């Protein structure tokens, strides 16, 4: 059925030896082992025949140019967009080497453009005004809507006019706390249109996390909705915003405008608490504004958005992306990695609260004039067949999701998939964590009927767009490998001393030179930007990920090497589906937090262990906490917390729950620890540093791999912890 496998025609050596041992102190997701590396899955001749990049040779030719002549390569692409004024002589300038001074990345500086104009007006003007821009699918099957590019432009203009009217100007921040309604991309685009900087906060973050972000970026306005229904549960978002605004007011940050969309499918306005003067119903004001709005032309290097993400210390980092380079990069990566055609219908299951929703729900696809699905609900509600129901309903051709969803649907059973046609599907995509080969194969064989290539895209909030990704028609894939670098990306695997490794190797994944979509700074903290990303391995951008490269040059991501946990889960599976997945009741209780069905969280969460630790120690009965990531069957990584209680406080189930509640309250439900392990003491070096390496081994029950514990201040702590493992 279209798939052909044979020994690689490109002179690749098939690897059979086991991967060299990884020097990285990380939780490596099991399966991607030696035998897998030899498995090559070729795109069908039909697929390659129509693909934009149809062979490895073609890719290599383009890649070579992108590295040898980045300025020429990227300006040719950039010229396809509308620029009011062209960029200056220097297409880009960069310094990624801390030894040579401040880190600086600039692309297309001096070029004057607007990303909203390029997403909407440009498509309308080139005759695509009547093309569907967004199909919206609500939480309940049967609730839906759509907007053409012309209609979307009008809606964006109305909101942009309103925002201008209430005093939002170029360079002002706007915090957006919205679920996956059409109003979320509308808001992002409206901000971009007037040069305001949007900061979308995932509408699953707690009021405290929201307040923290508001206090950091001091927005001119906050945009939210009254409530959202996720699965069967109504979440009262406006209440969360009210608490956050009260909190930030205490620190002197008062917000004058809280524009609130009335989401009638979840809650009527009469039930919503209101602060006259500050709160305004979207529906009462926005539709009154003109449907055209002049564009605020901005420099390519003017900020486009801020997105907070977790780092290895407690405070979230405001990742700042600018306009021109991000525009060119997201559009180009989208086009090539999905082999985009104008007739495609594209669905990315991520929430716009995460980078995937920024780059690959809103900007990348719309810059290409694509038809995008915005899905409000949870992929397993009302049952685990919902995704394929949506695929058939809209004839989705490109489907982009996360391994966690693949794994959980896989466990729910093939019958939920095979009862739908899925004939429209062309390319599948994966992001968020390494996709384990068995999930890859299920995705490929069952969902894609062995017909659709899988683009396993490795990238980060910081990178703006795909960095290592298959081009689906160009080369054979290896299940579990993100394959090769995108145009312009020069990955470098380095050892712990920062020495670049060649050929087959394992180490820390870095990038050698800038690419247009790179983030430019951490908002208000350029020093932290340099320290976190550029100081660990001078001369390189350090991703925080471990990686190996096999003999054929394929890249295999192995997970974070810093104290960041990638908890990737969506949910809303009813308990019946969970029992099928053979998860324990323990998992069920922790994942659901005891709701009768499981809550959803979009598809990706990056959580800093320090954030969870600081939430735990804020509990009056907790004296110390250490959090590590452990392999988790569905979520990729689970959150495992070692907790030392204050003197004399006894362990109890109640206390365990109250610790979990504290984390939920402070960060959000998705950060709740999966396991709390009572710790009379923590393994520390004599200088007081917690040895997480040992904790990771205890958490994953690899007790024979504890390594040397003699340098601990008190080695007996380890035995005590092991003794309490199952308490
Ligand atoms: C992980 C999400 C392996 C990685 C776009 C990275 C992946 C972190 C992949 C960024 C992949 C993302 N294979 N690992 N295809 N994609 N990751 O900022 O650890 O939420 O550093 O961005 O996710 O997470 P973030």
From TrEMBL:
Catalysed reaction equations from the record: acetate + ATP + CoA = acetyl-CoA + AMP + diphosphate
Keyword Ligase: yes
Domain of life according to the entry: Eukaryota
Gene3D superfamilies: 3.30.300.30, N-terminal domain of ligase-like
MF (Gene Ontology): acetate-CoA ligase activity; AMP binding; ATP binding
Main enzyme class: ligase
Keywords: ATP-binding, Ligase, Nucleotide-binding
Domain AMP-dependent synthetase/ligase: residue ranges: 127-514
EC identifiers of the protein: 6.2.1.1
InterPro entries: Ac_CoA_lig, ACAS_N, AMP-bd_C, AMP-bd_C_sf, AMP-binding_CS, AMP-dep_synth/lig_dom, ANL_N_sf
GO BP term (any one): acetyl-CoA biosynthetic process from acetate
Pfam families according to UniProt: ACAS_N, AMP-binding, AMP-binding_C
Boundaries of every AMP-binding enzyme C-terminal domain copy: 611-689
Domain called Acetyl-coenzyme A synthetase N-terminal: residue spans: 59-119
Protein family per UniProt: Belongs to the ATP-dependent AMP-binding enzyme family.
Annotated PANTHER family: ACETYL-COENZYME A SYNTHETASE, ACETYL-COENZYME A SYNTHETASE 1
UniProt-recorded name of the protein: Acetyl-coenzyme A synthetase
């Amino acid at each position: 059925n279209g798939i052909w496998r044979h020994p690689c025609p490109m002179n690749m050596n098939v690897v059979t030896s086991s991967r060299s041992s990884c020097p990285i102190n990380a939780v490596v997701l099991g399966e991607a082992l030696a035998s897998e590396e030899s498995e090559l899955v070729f795109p069908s001749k039909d697929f390659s025949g129509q693909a934009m990049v149809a062979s490895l040779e073609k890719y290599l030719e383009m890649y070579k140019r992108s590295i040898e002549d980045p300025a020429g390569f990227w300006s040719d692409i950039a010229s396809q967009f509308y620029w009011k004024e062209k960029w200056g002589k220097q297409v880009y300038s960069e310094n990624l080497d801390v030894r040579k001074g401040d880190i600086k990345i600039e692309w297309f500086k001096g070029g004057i453009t607007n990303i909203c104009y390029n997403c909407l007006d440009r498509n309308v003007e080139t005759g695509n005004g009547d093309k569907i821009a967004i199909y919206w699918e609500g939480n309940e099957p049967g609730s839906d809507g759509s907007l053409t590019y012309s209609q979307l432009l009008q809606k964006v203009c109305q909101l942009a006019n309103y925002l201008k009217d209430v005093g939002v100007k170029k360079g002002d921040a706007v915090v957006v706390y919205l679920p996956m309604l059409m109003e979320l991309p509308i808001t992002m685009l409206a901000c971009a249109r007037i040069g305001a900087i949007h900061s979308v906060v995932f509408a699953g973050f707690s009021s405290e996390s929201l307040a923290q972000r508001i206090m950091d970026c001091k927005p001119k306005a906050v945009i939210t909705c009254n409530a959202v229904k996720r699965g069967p549960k109504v979440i009262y978002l406006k209440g969360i915003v009210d608490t956050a605004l009260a909190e930030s007011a205490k620190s002197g940050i008062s917000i004058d405008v809280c524009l609130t969309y009335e989401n009638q499918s979840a809650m009527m306005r009469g039930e919503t608490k209101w602060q006259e003067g500050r709160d305004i119903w979207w529906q009462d004001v926005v539709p009154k504004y003109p449907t055209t709005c002049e564009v605020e032309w901005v420099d390519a290097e003017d900020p486009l958005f801020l997105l907070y993400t977790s780092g290895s210390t407690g405070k979230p980092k405001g990742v700042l992306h600018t306009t021109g380079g991000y525009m060119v990069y997201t559009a180009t990566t989208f086009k090539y990695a999905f082999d985009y055609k104008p007739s495609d219908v594209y669905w990315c299951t991520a929430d716009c609260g995460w980078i995937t929703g920024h780059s690959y729900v809103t900007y990348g696809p719309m810059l290409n004039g694509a038809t995008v699905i915005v899905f409000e609900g949870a992929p397993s509600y009302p049952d685990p067949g919902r995704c394929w129901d949506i695929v058939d309903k809209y004839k989705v051709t490109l489907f982009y999701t996360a391994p966690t969803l693949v794994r959980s649907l896989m466990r729910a059973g093939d019958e939920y998939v095979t009862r739908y046609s899925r004939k429209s599907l062309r390319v599948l995509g994966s992001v968020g964590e390494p996709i384990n080969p068995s999930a890859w194969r299920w995705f490929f064989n069952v969902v894609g009927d062995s017909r659709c290539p899988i683009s396993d895209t490795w990238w980060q909030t910081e990178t703006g767009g795909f960095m290592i990704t298959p081009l689906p028609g160009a080369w054979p894939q290896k299940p579990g490998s993100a394959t090769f670098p995108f145009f312009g990306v020069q990955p470098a695997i380095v050892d712990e001393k920062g020495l670049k490794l060649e050929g087959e190797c394992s180490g820390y994944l870095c990038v050698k030179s800038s690419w247009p979509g790179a983030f430019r700074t951490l908002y208000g903290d350029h020093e932290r930007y340099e320290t976190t990303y550029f100081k660990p391995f001078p001369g390189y951008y350090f991703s925080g990920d471990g990686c190996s490269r096999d003999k054929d040059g394929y890249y295999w991501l192995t997970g974070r090497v810093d104290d960041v946990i990638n908890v990737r889960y969506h949910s809303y599976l009813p308990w019946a589906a969970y029992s099928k997945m053979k998860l324990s009741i323990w998992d069920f209780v922790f994942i659901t937090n005891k709701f009768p069905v499981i809550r959803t969280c979009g598809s990706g969460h990056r959580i800093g262990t320090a954030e969870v630790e600081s939430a735990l120690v804020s509990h009056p009965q907790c004296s110390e906490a250490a959090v590590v990531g452990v392999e988790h069957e569905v979520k990729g990584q689970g959150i495992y917390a070692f907790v030392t209680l204050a003197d004399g406080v006894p362990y109890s189930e109640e206390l365990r729950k109250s610790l979990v509640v504290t984390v939920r309250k402070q960060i959000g439900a998705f950060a709740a620890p999966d396991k709390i392990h009572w710790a009379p003491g923590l393994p520390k070096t004599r200088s007081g540093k917690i040895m997480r390496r040992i904790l990771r081994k205890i958490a994953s029950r690899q007790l024979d791999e504890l390594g040397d514990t003699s340098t601990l201040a008190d080695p007996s702590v380890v035995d005590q912890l092991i003794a309490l493992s199952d308490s």
